[in-house]
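Margin note from the TA: students keep mixing up input and output lines. Inputs are the sequences; the output is the structure of the whole complex. Example:
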Amino acid sequence: MNIFAENLFGEVPKVSSGNLVVEGELDTRHGPILYLEDVSVSFDGFKALNHMSLYIDAGELRCMIGPNGAGKTTLMDVITGKTRPDTGTVFFGQTIDLLQIDEPAIAQAGICRKFQKPSVFDALTVFENLELALKADKRTWQTLFYRLNGEQRDRIDQIIETIGLTACNHQRAGILSHGQKQWLEIGMLLMQEPKVMLVDEPIAGMTHQEIERTAELLLSLQGQRSIVVVEHDMEFVRSIASKVTVLHEGSVLTEGTMDEVQNDPRVIQVYLGG
Amino acid sequence: MKLIGLGTDKIGTTVLILLASVSFIIPLCNLVSPADSPLHFSAYTVSVLGKYLTFALLGLSLDLVWGYCGILALGQGAFFALGGYAMGMYLMRQIGTRGVYGDPLLPDFMVFLNWKELPWYWLGFDNFWFALLMVVLVPGVLAFVFGWLAFRSRVTGVYLSIITQALTYALLLAFFRNEMGFGGNNGLTDFKELLGFNIQSEALRALLLMISGVTLIAVFILCRWLVNTKLGRVVTAIRDQESRVRFLGYRVEMFKLWIFVFSAMIAGIAGALYVPQVGIINPSEFSPLNSLEIVIWVAIGGRGTLYGAIIGAVLVNYSKTVLTGLMPEIWLFTLGAVFVLVTVFLPDGLVGLMRRRLQESHS
C-alpha cells in the first residue's frame, strides 16, 4: 500500500493512479467529483453499506437523508478513509483512488469533513483552531517553523467573521456553546479550502437564526465546492437541497428533488414503517 | 521573553529565576566562601541539588510527551539510563591503569570476566565528544524505532503505556546479564575523573551542578518555545482529539514520533548529567518502578505546564531524601498516598493550585 511509502517528516505520498493520466491530480473533466461504486461494508455481519453506488457532481450541493442505521455516517467514514470497505471502488475525480491513501492524504487531496458531534480542540482558542485547519504544508518540520503571513491572518479573520465568532476570537473553544462549536467546525472546514465538504448533521443544537445562517452559508458555497450534507431536519433539507438522496439499509433508495422523494411511496414506507 | 510566552506567566518566570540562582549562587558560594562561613554549602548539598536538577530535566522530558502529546510513556527511565550508561562508559574508559587490575584498555569487570579485548560497542567511548553524541543518539534511535513501530500501528492509550513498561523491563533484564558487557548487576562505577578533573573534587561537583542548571534552563526554554509553535498546538490537538487531527491532513504518527524522540534525547542528557554526580550507573535505573515515579513527579507538579514537572521532580525528590533519612519504610506509602490525593483533589497538580491562588489574589 502507498501509505507505507511516505517520508519521515509526514509527507503525503503522491497518489498513483493506475494507468490513468496525471498522478495525484484531481481530474473532474468528466463529470462527477466523487464516485462510489458497489461499495459494501459490514460490521460483524451487519451490512452498514450494501452495494451502494453514488455519484456527486463537482459544485453540487447534495443532501442525504434516511432513517437511523441507513449508512449515512458509514458512507462518510468510507470516503474519508476512516473505514475501509470490504468491496467496491471509491474515486475522487477520475484519478485519485481513495482506497489507496489514508486519512491525512485524503484530507490534503481536498475532502474535508465536519463530524456529527462537534469536534473542535477545546484547549485551543478559536483562532488557533482555524490556524490548524488552514490549508498549508502540514509536514512536521514545516509545521514547527510555520509563520502565518498577513494574507493568511486576514483569511482567518474573514472566516471568523463569516462564522460569527469575532467576539470570541481569543477564547478557548471549550467554552463555546454547542451551536458555536458547530460553526467553528464549519469554519475549520472552510479554512482547508476543500473541493468536497462532507457535513454531518450541521444544525444540531443551533437556534433558528443560526440554522438560517447555516443554510445561507451552504447555499453560498454551492457551485464553488461540492457539498454533501447529512441531516435529519426535513425543513432544513428542503431549504437548501436541489437534489436529495434517500438511503435505506445501506443502499440508495431513491434520488430526486425534495418533492419527488417525499411523494415516493417507497420513501413514505421507509419513514412511516410498513 | 515574549517569544516563549513568559511575560505574563508568573510561575514560569519565578521557576526560571530560582533555577538560575540555584545553579550559579550555590556553586559559587561553595567554591569561594571558606568552609566555616554561613554562606558555605556542603559538598553533599551541592551534589544532592545537582541530582535533583537532573531529575527535573527528566520530568520535563516526560511532561513533553505526556502533558502535551498525551502519550503516557511509562518507560522514560530507560532513556535516562541509556544516556547514563553512555556517560558511564566514557568515565570507565578514563580510569585506565588506575583500576584494580591496572589494565590500560579493559575496565575491571571485563578483566574479571577474563575478556581479552574490548567489545566493539565500547570503541570510541574514550572520546568525550563521541560519548556525548551517544548520550543523545542511543536514546533517540531507540525511541525512534520503538515509536515508529508503535505509532504507525496506532497503538495508543493504556496499551502503549504497557509496552513502554515492557521495554524498560526488557532492558533491565538485558543489562543485568554479564555477557552484555555493561558490568552486569554492579553496573559501571569507581570513576576517577571527568575531562581531567577528579570526580570527587568539590570543584567538579560545583561545576556539574552549574552545568545541570544551565542545561535545565536551556531545555526548559527550548521546550517552552516548542509548545508555543504551531507544531506545539498540533501536538496539543493530538492529545485531545487524535483522529480529528488526521482529518485535518496532519500525519499524527509523525508528530508523535518526533516529540517522543526529542523527549527521549532530553532524558538521555539528564541521565548523562546524573551519573557523574552520583558516581554509579547500574541496571536498577531501568526498573519499571523508576519510570512510574517520574509520572508521579509530573502529576504532583502539574502536567502540561513544563515548570510543573520541574517543581514536582524537585519537591518529591527532596521529600524522598528527607523521609528516607527519617523513616525509610514509609516512603513508598507516602508517595503512593500523595499521588492518589493529588490525582483526586488536584488534577492540575501543585501548579494548578498556585495558578488558582494567583487568580484569586488578582480578582
